[in-house]
Amino acid sequence: MAADKSGYIVAAAFIGPGTVTTASIAGADFGFHLVWALLFSVVATMVLQDMAARLGLGTGRGLSDALLTLTQSRPLRFIAAALIISAIGIGNAAYESGNLTGAAIGLNAIVDIGTPSWAITLGVLAALLLVTGKYKLIESVLVGLVALMALVFIVTLIFASPDWSAMGKQLVSPRLDSDTITMVLALIGTTIVPYNLFLHASLVANQHKATEDSDILQACRRQSVTAIGAGGLITLVIVATAMTAFYGKPEALDAGNMGTQLAPVLGEYAQWFFAAGLFAAGLTSAITAPLAAAYAVCGALGKNTDMKGGLFRLVWLTVIICGVVIASIGVKPLLAILFAQATNGLLLPIIAVFLLVVMNKGALPAAYRNSTMSNLIGAAIVLFVVCLGLYKLAKLFV
Question: With contact defined as beta carbons under 8 Å apart, do 141 and 281 qualify?
Answer without folding.
Answer: no
